[in-house]
Design goal:
The protein is of the alpha+beta class and 276 residues long. Helix content is 42%, strand content 16%. It contains twelve helices and ten strands.
Length: 276
């Protein structure tokens, strides 16, 4: 059997920081997995160290919740889960800002670029920028969540990410002088859409309507917010912990004024709301 020569610091990096299994480390060094486990035991490198190293902060948890409702995707392999987030080229700065929030749990510091210009289909696709986290056990609980369970965890911060990901800012057109929001919930079932409506009222005091008709050629499902509710949502987003991120990278999705009786009203239109 090949001798396993490795320093404690290198083994710690493989096992704790890079989250490699004892089997994977054994493959790299050409030794048996039991040999790796014995060396881990000798050096005092434990599974608990792996768990403690890769833990989500409260804001990172909100980022994960908002992303899996929006443009994020969780992938599980063996016993570990990773988060992948992708945005179009126009939203590169937004994607990069997200990466900065969670880069301590990623194996890269820069966004990956995906060239989609040569894809042959009927859609005019933009190039993509994406990042992925490491595969971690702390994400397993989120992988197991269904949409309703995920909505139960929604707060002002995760709402901001979801709205920035999947929300659409309808700008004034013609005689309609006010902006309003629509939120795509196409992948939701009707029951999940109905539950989302109740969550928006209970947590944020807004009442979205559902735009959906199964007879449509593409029966997409969308939540539509009134002018007042849209303004309120924008206020909540700007006051959340991700508010500065929203202003700096996705300001075009925020609503700054509303017109009532031909009077342009600034932020004070919405009664200040305590954001936790």
């Amino acid at each position: 059997m090949r001798e396993f020569k490795i320093e404690k610091e290198q083994l710690y990096k493989h096992y704790v920081i890079d989250q490699l299994s004892s089997y994977r480390i054994a493959e790299i060094y050409g030794v048996a997995a039991t040999t790796v486990r014995n060396k881990l035991l000798l050096f005092g490198v434990t599974p608990q160290m792996r768990e403690q190293h890769n833990q989500l902060t409260y804001l990172q948890k909100d980022l994960v919740i908002g992303s899996i409702l929006g443009d994020g995707c969780l992938q599980k392999k063996n016993s570990l889960t990773l988060l992948s987030v992708s945005h179009c080229e126009d939203q590169k700065n937004y994607a990069y800002a997200k990466l900065q929030l969670i880069k301590n749990l990623c194996n890269h510091d820069e966004l990956y670029f995906v060239d989609r210009s040569k894809e042959q289909d009927s859609k005019n696709r933009q190039n993509q920028y994406l990042f992925t986290t490491k595969s971690m056990s702390c994400l397993n609980e989120y992988y197991e969540l269904n949409i309703i369970d995920t909505l139960k965890l929604l707060n002002h911060n995760s709402l901001t990410i979801w709205m920035l990901d999947d929300g659409y800012h309808n700008y004034p057109k013609g005689k309609n002088k006010n902006s309003f929001y629509e939120l795509s919930v196409t992948r939701f079932s009707i029951d999940e859409v109905n539950y989302a409506q109740s969550v928006f009222w209970e947590k944020f005091k807004v009442r979205p309507k559902v735009k959906h008709d199964p007879k449509w050629k593409k029966p997409d499902k969308t939540l539509v917010f009134s002018v007042y509710d849209s303004y309120r949502l924008s206020y909540l987003m700007k006051e959340s912990h991700f508010g500065q991120l929203a202003k700096e990278t996705m300001d075009y999705k925020l609503i700054h004024t509303v017109i009532l009786n031909r009077v342009v009203t600034p932020e004070k239109f919405t009664v200040p709301i305590r954001v936790g």
